[in-house]
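Exam revision sheet. Question 4 asks you to relate a sequence to its structure. Input first:
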Amino acid sequence: MAAVQVDPPTTVPACPTFVPTFGTVQIVDLWTVLASPAWGALESLGTAAAVGVAAWAATQARSSSRESNAATITLSSIESQRRHSELIPRLRVVCEPCNPGSDILRLRVMLIGPPGLDRLDRLTVTIRNDHFSRGKGEHRQHLDGPTQDEIREHIWGPYRFTPGTGPDDAQADRKGRGTAYDAPLPIGEELPYQLEQTTLGHWMRSMTQQDWLHQQGTVIRLAFTAEHQTHGTWYLPCEIDTKTVPVTVFVPSRA
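Answer key, structure tokens:
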């Protein structure tokens, strides 16, 4: 029997590091690409881009947060203003003679509403002049005429608060211009005040007291400044015609 000849095993050559060039394109293996300077530059560029995107996202988040906070503040302000308008104090003011035939008047001020306002923390009542600009303009004193301060302090109207009178410790000042009640006034409660006729200024020598009162008429111009610790401050002007007393007015008016 003839012997069978077996060929030796074929040796497979190792994978080349560089594949031969086909035309102008050279194919390299993955590890060579990753180790190349070009790949490092590309990687740095990608990192920088990622950092830029992260910074942009953070900026947008901060901007959105600021816009959200601003919107919240705006809504809160709108709500506060709406609530302030809803809670405008309502006062009932009665003006009547202290005694029959007396020139002294009693002023009774009651807080009657609104229902959502349980109290006032402070109430200031002031006599307003017949014109708001009295004593505010430039004034040059002539001889023994009035100074600008005297014109400003003088009450240009028919009545003033009797100095030293008022509810509890809220006594009127020496000029009778106003009085401040610096304590809580609950809804449904009232404060009493006393009014007396004003007198003419020392410089009005050609005028009698009767002339002065006739000139001033019968309308008392008042201003109420109502304050609440939570809801703010309201300025409420009003006028009371004392030609016929007693008389009742509501502040603000129902018109």
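Marking note for examiners. The mean pLDDT is 84.
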